[in-house]
Amino acid sequence: MFAYTMRRLLMLIPVLIGMTLITFSIVHLIPGNPAQVILGETATATAIQDLEESMGLNKPYPVQYTIYITDLLQGDLGTSLRSKSPISSEIWPYIAATFELTIFAMLFAVFIGVNAGIISAWKQNSWFDFLAMLFALIGVSMPVFWLALMEQWIFAQQLDWFPSSGRQNNRDPMEPITYFYVLDSLIHLDFARTITNLKHLVLPSIALGTIPMAIIARMTRSSMLEVMKSDYIRTVRAKGSGQFLVIYKHALKNALIPVLTVIGLQTGVLLGGAILTETIFSWPGIGRYVYEAISYRDYPVIQSGILVIAFIFVMINLIVDLLYKYIDPRIKY
Amino acid sequence: MTEEILKIKDLHTHFFTDNGEIPAVDGVSLSIKKGEVVGIVGESGCGKSVTSLSIMQLIPSPPGKIVSGTIDFKGENLVHASNKRIKQIRGNEISMIFQEPMTSLDPLFTIGNQIREAIRIHQKVSKKEANQKSVEMLKLVGIPRAEEVMNDYPHQLSGGMRQRVMIAIAMACDPEILIADEPTTALDVTIQAQILDLMKKLNEEKETAVLLITHDLGVVAEICDRVVVMYAGQVVEEGTTREILKDPRHPYSQGLIRSLPKLHEKDQKLYSIPGTVPKPKMGMVGCRFRDRCRFVHERCYQENPELFSLENNRLSRCFLSDDAEGKVVKDAEANIGS
């Protein structure tokens, strides 16, 4: 396990270097003079020169890249052109918001998806199986923005069960600590606020989690059906074990590898920021942060935002790979 | 005469497929006495595995179903036993090992975990006690470094070792019957002999009855007391191993024995029974072996042969064994001899 982990970590290095190379070149792939594009057509020559100076754009590429990497290693993600403040200090709340939403969306997706898949496989061709797979099909085919709007209309506007947008009651904001608002309210021991914050999470989590849930359910079902036919499951039955042990101990663990892959990929996708969902629910996440930067041509923010998203994606994949090994001792690198 | 602990009577296990109903086991009767080793012999698809899975109530359902017949285990009909009761019997009173040791163990759990599980399903013992018992079982089946193997995963063991582990799992609760479905088919010859020796040893030491399913008459000769020959879902001959190997009565058994390679016959092409096994289907009339039989005559097309009783409790499903036709057999044999 240790050797495997070390090998897997070593393999990260070229990936991370490649990632920085790509984000580094984003600014330089802008046609024409980057400083001109950033400042717009009406910029004066001195302003352009000043910006080139401050961003180091007038130095040779290798030097620029070295500076970029050195800054990154020190946790410096550059300075936002719009807010003039360091990106590393302003990006965290957005990351936290996206993480919080992703965690709840994936909890919803995994819990319902895996269990629906298991029961569907267990009771293959039953009415439950039929209904679950019908819902899964609808789930993957439904446009997220439409689902989000419908949720808002039914559960926020008509029934008024859940708030329609935002992360908390904005008229009564709380002192953030970690920027994970549910966690923060627990740290403050303000449980009424915890309930409120959780309520804010319900609709966006469902909107965001529906597609992963449907994919996970279908994947779990087919993987379980495959495993249930195998010889070792027959052996477990021949030992006299009950259905529960057969399914939740042996079949599920064996069926989990492909399901885990899907869960990892979907988590990565959600952490990359779901711009549509975050916009509809006014959720100040990383997707919206980058989206706004794009509309303001705030290149340093775009660059850093993409780097952070890519980094998170790589990390999720790393975790999934380590989990593979934990589940299946046969896996080697 | 010792008591019969398992009696199968007129068992019909059918598979309901898109292509219609297939009678994989079509009226099989057989019995096993305490401490006896019984072999079921037949070629692929003759219903021998389905018979054994029927005893364990492990027929994949759907599409399979035991349509009629009884499986009497110490006075209890397993066909109608409750799910709960079946679970108590499986692995505890009747246990089973399978053909494929490579895939029959769960790849994601240690050997120790899998043996322990078999013990703890049926016995209320602590994890530590189950562990001790597991190590004991591994030693009993001749696994060296048993303590270390407990922490190994199946992929770290060879095929022979895995089959030993399977036997250890099957024997963990001291069952009265061990069903072995082609336990040596996937193993190489030297390992085969070791596994058979092991089963014979356990049979003698623990008085476990063994139902050995095989297509290999060599295996039968090695350890079985009695043999049941199956063909196309039916029992065609039954008798002691010695009698059947020396003097087979059913033309199919005769063919099987003739197709064994013999050491003293040089440069001879190995005999094989012409034709193939008919696909079992509902409502077959006549002898199922007739298209491949040397002695085929008119009656074989018109009537279903019954199991005729012969001397020494032998049975044969062939009209030639019918007393009325007994003479024909002798004549026919004389013809072949000449």
Q: TL;DR?
A:
The complex is a heterodimer of chains A (333) and B (338). Chain A is mainly α and 333 residues long. Chain A is built from 16 helices and no strands.
What topology does this entry show?
The complex is a heterodimer of chains A (about 325) and B (about 350).
Chain A: H1 2-10, H2 12-28, H3 34-39, H4 45-55, H5 61-73, H6 87-90, H7 92-122, H8 127-141, H9 144-158, H10 181-187, H11 191-228, H12 231-238, H13 243-271, H14 275-280, H15 286-295, H16 299-327
Helix pairs in contact in A: 1-16, 2-16, 7-8, 7-11, 7-13, 7-15, 8-11, 9-11, 10-11, 11-13, 13-16, 15-16
Chain B: E1 4-17, E2 20-33, E3 37-41, H1 48-55, E4 64-73, E5 76-77, H2 83-89, E6 94-97, H3 111-122, H4 127-140, H5 146-149, H6 159-171, E7 177-181, H7 189-206, E8 209-214, H8 217-223, E9 226-231, E10 234-240, H9 241-246, H10 251-258, H11 299-302, E11 308-309, E12 315-316, H12 326-337
Parallel strand pairs in B: 3-8, 3-9, 6-7, 7-8
Antiparallel strand pairs in B: 1-2, 1-4, 4-5, 9-10, 10-12, 11-12
Helix pairs in contact in B: 3-4, 3-6, 4-6, 6-7
Q: Care to describe what's here?
A:
The complex is a heterodimer of chains A (333) and B (338). Chain A is mainly alpha-helical. Chain A folds into 2 domains: 2-87, no CATH class; 90-327, MetI-like fold. Chain A has helices at 2-10, 12-28, 34-39, 45-55, 61-73, 87-90, 92-122, 127-141, 144-158, 181-187, 191-228, 231-238, 243-271, 275-280, 286-295, 299-327. In chain A, helix 8 (127-141) crosses helix 11 and helix 13 (243-271) runs antiparallel to helix 16 (299-327). Chain B is globular, with a radius of gyration of 21 Å. Chain B is α/β, with parallel strands linked by helices and 338 residues long. Chain B has a domain at 249-337. In chain B, the strands form 2 sheets. In chain B, strands 6-7-8-3-9-10-12-11 form an 8-stranded mixed β-sheet, with helices on both faces. Chain B has 12 helices and 12 strands. In chain B, helix 3 crosses helix 4 (127-140), helix 4 (127-140) packs across helix 6 (159-171) and helix 6 (159-171) packs parallel to helix 7 (189-206). Chain B is 33% helix and 23% strand. The chains are: A mainly alpha (333), B alpha/beta (338). Chain A binds chain B through residues 229-232, 234-242, 245, 250, 253-254, 327-330, and chain B through 56, 58, 60, 87-92, 95-96, 98, 100, 103-109, 117-118, 121-122, 153, 155, 166, 169-170.
